[in-house]
Amino acid sequence: MEATVAITEAKQKKGKPDPETLQFGKTFTDHMFTMEYEEGKGWIKPEIIPYAPVEIDPAAMVLHYSQSVFEGLKAYRSPDGEAVLFRPDENFKRLNRSNRRLSIPPVNEELLMEYLLQLLELEKDWIPDAEGTSLYIRPFIIATEPSLQVAPAKAYKLFIILSPVGSYYPEGIHPVSIMVEDHFTRAARGGTGTAKTGGNYSAGYNAQAKASGEGHAQVLWLDGVEKKYVEEVGSMNVFFKINGEVVTPELNDSILQGVTRKSVIELLQYWKVPVSERRISMEEVLTAYENGELEEAFGSGTAAVISPIGELTWKGTPMIINGRKTGEITKSLYQTLTGIQTGQEKDPFGWTRTIS
Amino acid sequence: MEATVAITEAKQKKGKPDPETLQFGKTFTDHMFTMEYEEGKGWIKPEIIPYAPVEIDPAAMVLHYSQSVFEGLKAYRSPDGEAVLFRPDENFKRLNRSNRRLSIPPVNEELLMEYLLQLLELEKDWIPDAEGTSLYIRPFIIATEPSLQVAPAKAYKLFIILSPVGSYYPEGIHPVSIMVEDHFTRAARGGTGTAKTGGNYSAGYNAQAKASGEGHAQVLWLDGVEKKYVEEVGSMNVFFKINGEVVTPELNDSILQGVTRKSVIELLQYWKVPVSERRISMEEVLTAYENGELEEAFGSGTAAVISPIGELTWKGTPMIINGRKTGEITKSLYQTLTGIQTGQEKDPFGWTRTIS
Lengths: 356, 356
Ligand SMILES: Cc1ncc(COP(=O)(O)O)c(C=O)c1O
Ligand SMILES: Cc1ncc(COP(=O)(O)O)c(C=O)c1O
Known about the structure:
2 copies of one chain form a homodimer. The first copy, chain A, is α+β, with helices and mostly antiparallel strands. Chain A has 2 domains: 6-165, D-amino Acid Aminotransferase, Chain A, domain 1 (2-Layer Sandwich), CATH 3.30.470.10; 176-341, D-amino Acid Aminotransferase, Chain A, domain 2 (Alpha-Beta Barrel). Chain A contains 8 helices and 19 strands. Chain A has helices spanning 61-65, 88-101, 109-123, 199-202, 205-213, 259-270, 282-290, 328-341, and strands at 6-7, 31-38, 42-50, 54-56, 68-70, 73-77, 83-86, 134-143, 155-165, 176-181, 218-222, 230-233, 237-242, 245-248, 275-277, 294-301, 305-314, 317-320, 352-355. In chain A, the strands form 2 sheets. In chain A, strands 1, 2, 3, 5, 6, 7, 8, 9 and 19 form a 9-stranded mixed sheet that branches. In chain A, strand 2 and strand 3 (42-50) form a beta hairpin. The two termini of chain A are 25 Å apart. At the A-B interface, strand 4, helix 1, strand 8, strand 9 and helix 4 of A face strand 4, helix 1, strand 8, strand 9 and helix 4 of B. Strand 4 (54-56) of chain A pairs antiparallel with strand 4 of chain B, so a sheet runs across the interface. The site of one pyridoxal-5'-phosphate has 13 residues of chain A, from helix 6 and strand 16. One pyridoxal-5'-phosphate (PLP) binds next to helix 6 and strand 16 of chain A.
């Protein structure tokens, strides 16, 4: 991979959007980063160019066999106006893990970080500064070789696109209702669940529609084998506080290894709050609920950071958690994580990377 | 959907390729069919235009969440020069089943057939006539709305592209070696296995690479839950002849409902050969093998039509089937099916559709 990025500036700059009316993932900045992979040459042509539609062959393999991976992270505006990234190295590591699962050639993580920094340098005015807002960063790789053979492509394109996003909680953090999904499977043992690859997401649309139709915000996924064990919630990892201990499903080969999940665990350990990663069944969650020991529940992910769960419905029976109020640990995690991410709180872990 | 297709003819026509050197899915004809879906308007703008790269927004949802479906069928050249399609209605029905699983709006199957016929009318000279050759037809739908929200798109594009293909068996039909995959999963219960959607295919690349590395042509997939029951072989359905009876895994919610599979079953019933659709475990296959009752095995699919299996390796133990020779039933099925498909044999089932 070459270190020098060719930059073509956009002739016309777009106006910055009003953060109050921003919908997630619909507005993009003036520029994007692109790079190509050619067999025998590796990753070549790193470029920053105006954000615009690109040409793709109708036979490009990504359109047929979904050979693609992506990442999602955010840049926040610190109180003194700097751009702050949260554990971006973790995202690039995960990108390469996803690449391996999807038979996509690995990228040089350090160089990719350099490219991202150059792109952010150019687009830094796009990082909004209102409370709760950020610039969402979406690196992704697609198979571009025009071929209908069911086999890994010989050509790929990597993009980094940027999208300013409004607050996830414009009216303040509040608990949501979740439905446990008994029929549909997000990812199975031996499948692609640990990879951030498109197929895992569109596979969940039916279940999400069912949950929404019944008044729930998201779906809780169970394991694909026995439909007994808790896996994730929508596009978040999930935690339960049971009788003083915070429990989250252990990593296996179907759960996505969330960067927020990892940070929650490390923060709880730092706070000396008991936390364990282990298999947890819905039966155990229900029993804890019935015994009055299910004290808090929340999801963790880049989009919402922490999302308290106020109601969890399994087989038609709703469990109301903490009287539908945000729990203490949930609130502390949200405040501390968002504080560190936005540079408003001190970062004892070295998680943030500031771009001045 | 509108019945009138706007046709823009290619200014320059490509030369027809030599069928001897054709690689599958690398050469495309002069024109393609496209149609768009817009929320509130439905499927609009049916068009036949020159085959060429198209513009796509980098945020097009298909590139992020793989919301896409496809189909695959073939047009053959009959001895008197007509184009013959094999059960195309089955493909369009399956397209809509895939659409439902992927939350993509359904298409009007009759109209889509009309569009395909118009495209074939224009491209009929592209159907090769050498033995074993055909014109591969690839309808597919992709989510085009530019949005990073994890939700069904509000805009789609449907394409039909055409690719002349050489003979699958340039040296005559011959048995292949297959490896049973114990670790990776293609599709799980509650997953997307019955849909022809990209994610199922790239998910299998790792397993295919492992099998190829060990000298096998393809992978035999087991069920995603217990890893005990036979599902499919590569991109084919699978049949075993055990002690005079032909057995194929029954349809469940992870196996693709092959058009060739259905035709094999109907043909065997017509011939009064015992055939059953039921769950079949690898244990049962191995026991049959050890008892000398595993008489034949083959895969079925549009690409190869029938692919005899000469060796099946499970947990390191190879089973040699019928002395690595193509079995009698396997051969008859291949000859009759290809005979009907190419219009060389009489079609007592009304399976073929001739375009004059
Ligand atoms: C399926 C899934 N689980 C969990 C997460 C949470 O991961 P992270 O904390 O890295 O955002 C995500 C993505 O963000 C996800 O897509
Ligand atoms: C996974 C899979 N199984 C089986 C088949 C066979 O289906 P058909 O006979 O309709 O070609 C295909 C596709 O062709 C497939 O992709």
